[in-house]
Amino acid sequence: MTETVDLRVADLHPAVDDPALNSMNFLNEVAQHYPDAVSLAAGRPYEEFLDVAALHRHLDRFRRHLADDLGQSPAQVHRTLLQYGRTKGIVHHLVARNLAVDEDVTVDPEAIVVTVGCQEAMFLVLRALRADPRDVLLAVAPTYVGLTGAARLLDLPVRPVRGGPAGIDLADLREQVRVARAAGLRPRACYVMPDFANPSGTSIGLTDRRRLLDLAAEEDLLLLEDNPYGLFPAPHAGRLPTLKALDSARRVVYLGSFAKTVLPGARVGYVVADQRVAGADGTVSLLADQLAKIKSMVTVNTSAIAQAVVGGALLEHGCSLVAATVRERAAYGRNLRHLLDGLARRFPAGTSPVRWNVPAGGFFVVLTVPFGVDDALLHRSAREYGVLWTPMAHFYAAGAPVDALRLSVSAVTPDEIDLGLDRLAALVADETARRAATAEVG
Amino acid sequence: MTETVDLRVADLHPAVDDPALNSMNFLNEVAQHYPDAVSLAAGRPYEEFLDVAALHRHLDRFRRHLADDLGQSPAQVHRTLLQYGRTKGIVHHLVARNLAVDEDVTVDPEAIVVTVGCQEAMFLVLRALRADPRDVLLAVAPTYVGLTGAARLLDLPVRPVRGGPAGIDLADLREQVRVARAAGLRPRACYVMPDFANPSGTSIGLTDRRRLLDLAAEEDLLLLEDNPYGLFPAPHAGRLPTLKALDSARRVVYLGSFAKTVLPGARVGYVVADQRVAGADGTVSLLADQLAKIKSMVTVNTSAIAQAVVGGALLEHGCSLVAATVRERAAYGRNLRHLLDGLARRFPAGTSPVRWNVPAGGFFVVLTVPFGVDDALLHRSAREYGVLWTPMAHFYAAGAPVDALRLSVSAVTPDEIDLGLDRLAALVADETARRAATAEVG
User: What CATH number does the domain located at B54-321 have?
Assistant: First the structure.
């Protein structure tokens, strides 16, 4: 007798069967199945600097801020922290101050929507922009899987734009806009991570940032700038202005995260959406207000308690996350350096066909190997070699394996990097030999 | 010169211009515009029992639970509270225990997804079920606007089922299923709030609950049971078993909220989705796991800090929210009694044409008046009479005004109820006279 079933996957939204939505699940399952493997896969922040005691301190600090700085009465403080709250959030003024202090970006706090992590921010923006079956999104490839998944849930096709070593191929972006429009489609925006992108690690240079903004104006395109890693340049590498800082024409919708700078467990992010939106009746509103309407039907508002923790952390450092993340920046910079040095030792330029890029910061390095890299190889790597990494194929539209893998330095120690790289080098050597043998036999 | 605009509402998803999404905004704006008016409109919980100090206590309690009861190491506790977390949540086992203790419902904790409030739970379920343009949702009318809005965001039409004094008209439900199917549509589920519904205040009797489950089985229909108010019966009124407690055939997807029982500011709710889902490859999963995939692309996971606060509150009372809400139940029961008595004094049965229902619990009473009730009247009520309430038209598909309004007793004191009802009685008297005069002139 077969097991009774109540529903069929085929009767649910097709996204639940999509590679993008199953990718994270798959990678988490592999990690759980091999807990003793060294993980050069996890993109989560380093845990040592997170602090349970800080939760209480930040909550108290934000409570005092409401009373002392904003002049709220005890009843108002009580209501702000404990009741249903403002849809656009209660730390918007601190986010605006943070953007002014750290990014030289001046925004009206009313143009900010505080969200349940950056993921909800992306989701709200894509929901707003996807109005019609002709709408498509452009995204620099390889693409963060959270973007691809959110778009899939909203039946919004994502069309890749070549990334390349410069972070974005502007000629290809222009071409993709042309091709989409020629096909009767509406490219609503281009998604881009200009600083130390996930998964590629690449950054867009200053000149190209300006050119990208010009192109967006010429082509009447919005840019969705996602910036989770911008505060983590490698030691002695500088930080570049964000697209939003260079944006004088409200072309950029800016997606912000506190997961890597304050606390992943808070699930607080935000979107800056200062675009002016004309209603049929001639009224003009901010895009942020349209996003807030959508948010009211997705999550109502972001947890006030979670926001208070982030608010307190911001206040503790004068709203500067550059100041708040000195230790993190040092650790990530050290790890990135250690990984790059370790790769150079294990895969010498003259003799090894293995190649990698040299990111100017962030969490990720892409390693190109002389063979296809698929999920089966990841399983084998975990089981037989004890090292985890991420197949780059997960960041491209479903299809053939890609001959590259992503290494992450965010959640490991230098010793773990050494151990992981030793194991990875063994895998690469064995796999190269195995495939050479197969080729000879073939 | 006209103001520069960047986008047009007409180019965004049509939901942003929909009455359902603008309804809450409108009502909030009226409330903000008349802060001195007595609010018989607000459905938020009573604030006096909320407690900032409890946040710290609950956080600590849940932290100890992770270590002492679940045996987590200090590093694991740290990770559970502060890192990215399990998509389906970290208080699922406590939610399951709560359902066993308070609702006599036995569910596998793996069938629970902890969500950013009940709103996200609804959103995830509707996203999963809306697979095709032929899909429609049935919902008892008048309908909670959060359901209507979520469905609108997902392009899922909502078709009303008559509610009436019994809470649901089962013959009409059967007829609406028939009509939809005859039109080539797929009714995926029927949304129902069997206990003290928002906005109607009505409840479904035990016999009708069983009949509804039978009908769902016969028609192969899921039931979405939303139960935010079930713990608040009027004094001496009993509680009925939930549909989920009576559900022996996994027909019910149960939507739970902690906003009214623990803390609105936490934004923690959940869905019980124990339905078995068959994949094309023959694998069988829980609907909860399909919802988790969707959640991973909407909010990733629910704030661990917010969950910890709710978890601590549950632990403090042995996971019984019946035990935790003794004061709240007394206050809401007293207020409901006070409102009903006050209505009877001000609108005597023999002489007044005003009528109202007598809910067996919850926050809401519907008042029927001898004139149409629209937003303009609400504005006048706020401005000239100093009392707020909710036009029932907001809970029906857009159209003509309805001659009824919703009164809420959740966020007021008995004195405020008296004051509000005095003002409301004055409005009703003036409006009845005014319309009578207009009719005579006409």
Answer: 3.40.640.10
ipTM comes to: 0.97
The sheet carrying A158-162 orders its strands as: A112-115, A269-272, A252-257, A222-226, A186-192, A135-141, A158-162
Nearest CA in chain B to A127: B13
Q: HEC states along A363-389?
A: CEEEEEEEEEECHHHHHHHHHHHCEEC
Rounded CA-CA distance B113/B111 in Å is 7
Helix H or strand E encompassing B139: strand B135-141
Which residues on chain A are in Cβ contact (under 8 Å) with B296? 21, 24-25, 149
User: Distance from A371 to chain B by nearest Cα, in Å?
Assistant: 29
In this complex, is the C-beta atom of B152 within 8 Å of any C-beta atom belonging to chain A? yes
In chain B, where the domains are located: 9-48+326-435, 54-321
The three-class DSSP label of residue B112 is strand
For domain A54-323, the CATH architecture is 3-Layer(aba) Sandwich (3.40)
Q: Which CATH architecture has domain B9-48+326-435?
A: Alpha-Beta Complex (3.90)
By CB atoms closer than 10 A (0-12, 13-18, 19+), residue B348 is exposed
Beta bridge mates, A159: A138
Q: In chain A, positions 54-83, which contact chain B (CB-CB < 8 Å)?
A: 55-56, 59, 63, 75, 77-79, 81-83
A297–B17 CB contact, under 8 Å: no
B303:A116 CB<8 A? yes
Residue numbers in A near B305 (CB within 8 A): 55, 263, 265-266, 303, 305-306, 309
User: Taking the CA of residue A54 as centre, how many other CA atoms within 13 Å lie in the half-sphere pointing to its CB?
Assistant: 21
Which tens digit of pLDDT belongs to each residue from B297-323? 999 999 999 999 999 999 999 999 999
Three-state DSSP at B231 gives coil
- What are the tens digits of pLDDT across the range A243-287? 999 999 999 999 999 999 999 999 999 999 999 999 988 899 999
